[in-house]
Amino acid sequence: MTTTEAPLRPEPYGGPEDAVHPPSRVRELLVGPADQPRWARPGLYALLALTAVLYFWGLSASGWANDFYAAAVQAGTQSWKALLFGSLDAGNAITVDKPPASLWVMGLSGRLLGFSSFSMLLPQALMGVGSVGLVYAAVRRWSGPAAGLLAGVALAMTPVAALMFKFNNPDALLVLLLVVAAYCTVRATESGSARWLALAGVAIGFGFLTKMMQAFLVLPALGLVFLVAAPIGFGRRILALLGACAAMIISGGWFVALVSLWPADSRPYIGGSTDNSLLELALGYNGLGRVLGGSGNMSGGGGGGGFGGGTGITRLFDDSMGTEISWLLPAALIGLVAGLWFTRRTPRTGRTRAALILWGGWLLVTGVVFSYMQGIIHPYYTVALAPAIAAVVGICVVELWRGRQFRLPRIALGAMSASTGIWAFVLLDRTPDWFPAMRWIVLIGSIIVAAILIVGAHQLGKFTAAVAIAGLLFGLAGTTAYAIDTATTPHTGPVPSSGPNTGNGMGAPGGMDMSAPDANAADGGMPSSENNDNSELQELLKNTDTRWAAATVTSMSASGLELSTGASIMAIGGFTGSDNSPTLEQFKTYVADGEISYFYGGGRGGGPGGDSGSGAEITAWVEANFTAKTVGGTTVYDLSQPVGN
């Protein structure tokens, strides 16, 4: 296995002829620098174009996708305060249960282009194309353009990536920011640059403002590769890492400080928290609660289907997560072990080993946490693994291929090919009626390629290119087919899943039973209420001019009607109804001040937090003090007309 120790990009002009006749900037833009193969830059453009076609195709077919986040995006186009805090409603009663960074991007797009499904999902698709491009750029710098292109293709064709880069959950921005951090770390490690490393810290800080502590899972890999491979003294490496930590704290902490210092009665309640604190939300429900269980999370990682299944080392391969992310995972693990073994004696600053530490560390730490975390986890979370798996596969395939004259690299390549084919067969067999012949073609083709690689990869002669292409086609066939099916299928609901027969957005094929007790714990949203199709209720809410057109319990009852009417609706208790916001006394004040026009039923509270929310108490008070009427089959209370008036 070979390593590239010299910088991959020399000075652009060096000789006297170049000084007189510098290369055309247009030509360099089209075909790339002189130190790259002529096919590299056109290959990159083709990769980005195909990724854009895949991710932009039928972008609006999913409508509002996840109503919960869509309602918050809409609120952000109506109120700057709602945009700043990530409020579920323009009246600023309560926020979503995540920090608002992804809502900032989608909300600004809606303000610029007008709020619509397309304007909301446009940034998500662009983030997908950007992530693919940055993975290519990061891998190319240390392993060459062939590895970069393979890594980019593998990321673009990961089913869960094709799902989440066309959906409005925060994961698209999180992945982009993690890849930005990895690219900046690559640049920092090349020269020991504290500035580039600080930029990586900034990206992780904004990742915290996107999905909180999940962004920190890549920190061990980023820190270790710089500490091991940066070509500067140990003391300077430590100082640079401390500076990057400071940059991360500032870029993520400013918003936490803003929320803490802003008067609580002048901002929305922080959804998902127990004390109206963003820091508590980060450390509790969205932090240690996810890893250890509790804090509003289920324990034991149960839930099946739309949740992650039981904990354990096989979780990433099971029925819930397997087809989302694991197509190339066996190959990545085999390649990572082989790569680290073959580079064990390289210099400290060796580029190939550094690349494996970076991307392999990302893969291992995140994969282990996902496998064993006890709290709420959904299969689409695994999109955070996609860049690491893609990069490791791209790097290892190319580096092992370069060493194919030796027996052990050939064996490792053959093992990667055979394991990919066998595992693809298993995954494709989970949907046996969907292109049933494909699993046999992939299995047989991959094993044949593996045998050829092991026996004679060093003696292929003019057949070298044909075998390499065949290996890539068989290896990527299963994941590509699932990704294309995913990208061309609409997805809605709180727990979207990739692949065939999962377009209902409710988890595993066949859907997740939302009547189950734990169903309310669906992360970031709930199924649409029947009130969403009530045209009479919609018309009633449109003709209001109060701060909130209505109040109801849980976002399940609020978000769909917000989207269909454009009105601000208070979701009492947040998305599960378990948040103690507003309290009964606060609600009475809002009613006395004429800030809420109506109250309607249909929501169910409690969720994983039990009956800790204020919904039941407020509902009982409204029922006792205001007269009910029926509007299109829904019970509605006019809060301006107390009983007896």
TrEMBL record:
Molecular function in Gene Ontology: pentosyltransferase activity
Principal location class: membrane
Residues in coiled coil: none
Domain Putative mannosyltransferase YkcA/B-like C-terminal: 543-625
Keywords for the protein's UniProt record, in alphabetical order: Cell membrane, Glycosyltransferase, Membrane, Transferase, Transmembrane, Transmembrane helix
Compartment list: Cell membrane
Membrane topology: Multi-pass membrane protein
InterPro entries to which the protein is assigned, alphabetical: LipidA_mod_glycosyltrf_83 (IPR050297), RgtA/B/C-like (IPR038731), YkcA/B-like_C (IPR056785)
CC terms in the record's Gene Ontology section: plasma membrane
Transmembrane segments: 44-65, 112-139, 146-165, 215-234, 241-262, 325-342, 354-373, 379-401, 408-428, 434-456, 463-484
Organism: Antrihabitans stalactiti
Positions of the Glycosyltransferase RgtA/B/C/D-like domain: 97-251
Protein name (record): Glycosyltransferase family 39 protein
Positions of the UniProt region annotated as Disordered: 1-21, 488-534
Signal sequence, renumbered to the chain: none
GO biological process terms, semicolon-separated: lipopolysaccharide biosynthetic process; response to iron(III) ion
